[in-house]
């Protein structure tokens, strides 16, 4: 067995917040891998780790060469746009089994993780020819991934995140166009939002709002030549902002009181030690120390897994000043949901959507140009997958724009 570009992928995993020990544990646990039956035409073999967190996929030698050749460009794109929805490549390997040829495979982060609550899955290419999936006849546990024609008149409701998704798809497809790549897919998974998802996202939003108050207050203090509130390491001191947070918290009683019932109903065992006979739950929720001493530690427990991908933003930023609008927009970031897979999840009003762009190895070569000519004759007037890179990218962006609100 051989590992390719091991130090590079190790650093990338660390950048994503993945500890090598956790990564190795998923790959080497005693439970067997799960073989994934795919309707892909590539005849590649797919395997899932037992925790369903990582995909292993066999690749042709030329595909591995293409990835390694363009690895620096891929990582540069990921660094420039840390919330990119491109699939996360985590390792490249080859293995020689007795009496068999050398086989290459890659390890990727699963877009559909965690999968337990996902109700529908789609593989979108933005065309119609051959883009439907026959439903399973029996009631087996086979996971069906539908295609473009199966999506029909559904819409992805994102509200304020719609603009972000449209722009990120454009940025990612422009990158793939520069590599002359086609035939990639946009994966879309639908999961109805449950009460615990809504509560944790609302709570994280409150924490981030207060963090912004810290930053804005620090800027106000500096502008008024107040005593310095910068620490030696360049981070912002919370001595002044705490007073402002207290005022902001006292002004948010209506939203806090509406959250108390949810908190007690969803996490009674966790909150019971903090309740006092002389203090109502509403007063507890409104208190300045509740977010800092109770909710934040709760969200951050098991933080290596639950919050690992919030790299360089919000709670995991190197400096609170990273939350400034200009810095945040420069790398096209968004507030990530409290999910185990936040880079590939977007929360709308009613659904959590899993989105990711996969299959990045089909280069628009001379052979593909001939295939495009043949398909244009056979499927005259219809949309098929083999088209030039610029048109492929534009068409997928148009699909996203027409199916999101």
Short descriptors:
405 residues; single chain; alpha+beta; six-stranded antiparallel β-sheet; five-stranded mixed β-sheet; Phosphatidylinositol-4-phosphate 5-kinase like 1; globular
In brief:
It comes from Naja naja (Indian cobra). With 405 residues, the chain is α+β, with helices and mostly antiparallel strands. It has helices at 6-15, 20-28, 61-69, 71-80, 148-151, 161-178, 195-223, 241-250, 253-266, 268-271, 281-286, 288-300, 303-306, 325-330, 366-378, 389-402; strands at residues 2-4, 34-36, 46-48, 54-59, 89-95, 103-109, 120-124, 146-147, 181-182, 185-192, 345-347, 351-358, 362-363.
Beta strands, count: 13
| Cα-based radius of gyration, to the nearest Å | 24 Å
Strand content: 5-15%
What class do helices, strands and sheet pairing give?
Answer: alpha+beta
| Average pLDDT level | 75
Roughly how many Å apart are the termini? 47 Å
- SS summary, helix count: 16
N-to-C SSE string, H for helix and E for strand: EHHEEEHHEEEEHHEEHHHHHHHHEEEHH
Oligomeric state as shown: single chain
Give the helix level as a range of percent.
Answer: 40-55%
Low-confidence stretches are 212-221, 223-259, 299-323
Sheet with most strands: strand arrangement: 1-5-6-4-3-2
Which term fits the overall shape? globular
Largest sheet: 6 strands, antiparallel
